[in-house]
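Why does residue order matter? Because the sequence determines the fold. Keep that principle in mind as you read this record.
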Amino acid sequence: KGTKTPMFRRILKQALPTMIAFTMSGMYSVVDGLFVGKAAGDTGLAAINIAWPIPAVITAMGIGIGTGGSVLYSNMMGKGDRDGCRRMFNTTVTFLALAGVLLSAVLFAARDPLLCIFGAEGEVMGQARQYAGIIIAGSVLQVCGTGITPLLRNMNLSFAAMISMVTGFVVNIAVNYYLMFPLGMGIRGAAFGTVTAQFVVLAISVLVLSRSCKEKVRPALEGKSVAGICRSGITAFGVSLAPTVALIFTNWQCLRYGGNAAVACYAVVSYIVFPVQYLLTGIGDGVQPLLSYYNGAGRPGELGQVKRIARIGAGVLGAVTMTVTLVCTPYIARWFGLSEEAAVFFGTGMRVSALAFLVTGFAKFNISYLNAVLRARLAVLLTFAESLVVSPVYLFLLPAFTGMTGIWVSLPATAVTMLVIYGMINRKEMS
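Structure:
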C-alpha cells in the first residue's frame, strides 16, 4: 500500500490534466453542433458532420507529430540523454510548422473532391465548403496548437497544457456565439470560432514554453529524428483519426438508410461519442509520459503499477460516462435542435452507441501502452485494423439485415471485437 499510494497520486497528477485537455479538444465539435443546430438546423448539422473529416485530419496530424516526438523525448529523458531531448524537441516543433503549411496546401486543392466523396451535395455542399475552407486556412495554427500539447505534457507541464485547452474552449464558445447570432454568420462563425480557439491554445503554449525552457527553440529537421517521430506518432495519428474514418462510413450508411435527417441525427450522436472517446483516450495518453520514462529507465515494477491503475480508471470512467449518457439521452436531441424526423432516429442510436463506452477505455489504453514502450508496429497494426477493417465490415453488414439499428450496433460491436483481439495479443505481447 505504501508504494501504490504515491504512484496513484503521481498518475492522477499526470493524467487528470491530460484527460481534461483531451475532453476539451473533443468538446469543440459539441460546441459547434450546439450553435449550428440552433442557427442552421438539420442542414447545418449535416454539413458540419460531413465536412468534419477535414478538421479531424488536421487535428490528427498535430497529435501524431506531437505525440511521436514526446514519446521519444520521454524515453530519452529516462535514459538521461539531455542532448537528445533538446534535439528531439527542436525537430518536433519544426516538423509541426512545416506539416501545417503543407497540409493546408494539399487540403485546399482537394477540398471539393473530398466533400463529394464524403456525401455532400446541394445546400449541404455549399455550407460544408464554407466551413471547410475556413478550417483549412487555419491549418498551421491547429496543427501546431494540438501538437505542442503532448510536448508540454512530457515536459511536466500537464497543468499548463490543460489551462491552454480550457481557455481555448471558452474562447470557442464566446466567438461562436458572437459570430453566429449577433453577426448572423451561420456555419462560418463556427469555423472561425475553432480557428480562433486554436490560436489562443498555441499562444498560451508558446508563452509557457518560453518561460519554462532554459534554451531557445532552434529550427531543426534531423532526418533520423523525423523518421522516429513518424514511427512513434503514426499510432496516435490513427487513434485520433479512427473515429472519423468510422464517421465517413457511417454518414454513407445514414444517407442510404435514412437521408439527411439520419445524418443530422448521427451528427448529434457523434457530438457525444467523440468527446467521451477523447476523455477515455486521455487516460492512456495521460500516463504515457510515465510509461515511456519507466520503460526508458528499465523499471518494470513501476511500469506494471501504472498499467494496473490506469486500467482500473478506464473501467470506472467508462461505466460512469455510459450511465450519464443513458440518463441524459431523452434531453439531448432537444438541446441540439434536431427536427422531429431526426429525433425519431436519435433515442435508439444514442443508447446503443453509449454501450461502447464500457470497453472503449481499455482498448485505447492498450494502444497508448504499446506506443509508449516503443512497440509501434503492433500498435499501428491494431489501430488501423479497427478503423479500416473491423468497423467498416460491421457498418456495411449489420444495416443490410437490421436497417438503421445495425448502424448504431456497429460501434459497440467494433469495441467488443477489438477488446477480444487486444486480449488475445496482450497475453503474449504485454505479459
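The CA atoms of residues 418 and 424 lie 10 Å apart.
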